[in-house]
Amino acid sequence: MAMTNQELLESFARTTERMFAPEEFTKLLESGRQLRIKYGVDVTAPYLHTGHAVNLWMMRQLQDMGHRVIFLIGDFTTRIGDPTGRDLLRPVLPQEEIARNAEAFIEQASMVLRFDDPDLLEIRRNSEWYSHMPAEELLRLFSMITHARLISRDMFQARIQQGRDIYMHEMLYPVLQGYDSVELHADLTIIGSDQLFNEMLGRFYQEHSGQAPQVIITTRITPGIDGKAKQSKSLGNYIGLGHSPREKFGRTMTLPDELIIPYLEVYTDVPLAEIARIKAKLADEPMRAKLLLAHEIVRRYHGAEVADREQEWFLQTFSSRKVPGDIPELQLAGGELSALEIVKRFFGPRKSNSELRRLFQQGGVSLNGRRIVRPEEIVEVRQGDEWRVGRRTWFRVDVR
Known about the structure:
Layout: H1 5-13, E1 16-20, H2 22-30, E2 36-41, H3 50-64, E3 68-73, H4 75-78, H5 95-109, E4 121-125, H6 127-130, H7 135-142, H8 147-150, H9 154-162, H10 168-184, E5 188-192, H11 196-208, E6 215-219, H12 245-252, H13 260-267, H14 272-281, H15 286-302, H16 304-319, E7 329-332, E8 335-338, H17 339-347, H18 353-361, E9 365-367, E10 370-371, E11 378-381, E12 386-389, E13 393-399
Parallel strand pairs: 2-3, 2-5, 3-4, 5-6, 7-13
Antiparallel strand pairs: 1-6, 8-11, 9-10, 9-12, 12-13
């Protein structure tokens, strides 16, 4: 059963940081027409995490009420590179990589958004208009924005203070992202607060084009699973939509206790009243609360049955200190190899030698329960040897 407008507003309040402007949003919902929700992505890195998914779940609720998400692939603007959060120039990606990244984005976003109904989701690319836009039209857009307004962005100010270069195409990026809203006739966009400057330009250009300005909702941002900076692939402190259910569960269980309640509020649909009860008992039952959180995150993306199975696996493995029965096998010839070479053969290109060396040095590698701290240690390869790397990875040797 679809939500009422009031129920939607109450649900959105849970994950909303700011809204521009709430009275406009209420009027849009009460208009009775299908709303157009802009969801723009620059496909520089093909991954989404639970932080990104906060916005996706809000859009999914709107889809379930009959509204349309416009999935805008910024294939043209990706060639420029969004300067948001950057103190250095982004590298330019080749067109083939942009296309691959776009497909990866769609695959991950489809874990939340409905791609099965063309009336509820439309895929667009901003090369549709920018690749054919006359230079005079671009100059007209640029002439409407002052240099002072563009360099007021925090990342540009930081570069100025550091004496770093700002390239012209980076300064013009917000103009292009903002004008996308005109081309899409966007009623609403749901974003992280770091995109607010660009999307406010969208409202500006829509008003100057005779359109009603889009409503902008910025969403809550939490620290990553290390309790420090926000979720980031480069920092490794994230729960990825592309992660396996086991990886999602395991990463959630590493969370600092003080983030359990914020994560329940932002990344799950557990009722707020129940979260309040959990909060009251958190000091006495942190592990129970964290298990519930991990279960709910996995359930949301993979279903209750999978979540139950991963919780049982986690409890058997970590609480009972048992080696899992379903660990993968690594086929090796007999003889002797360094411990680093054996572990490297299991991971292949997924981990660099430097990453693996750090794991050894930190005591994160063991063979049949014996910790190995020297990567160069020579090991005799034996059938059935059980290796553990880090907290959640095992493999068993199969001698061929």
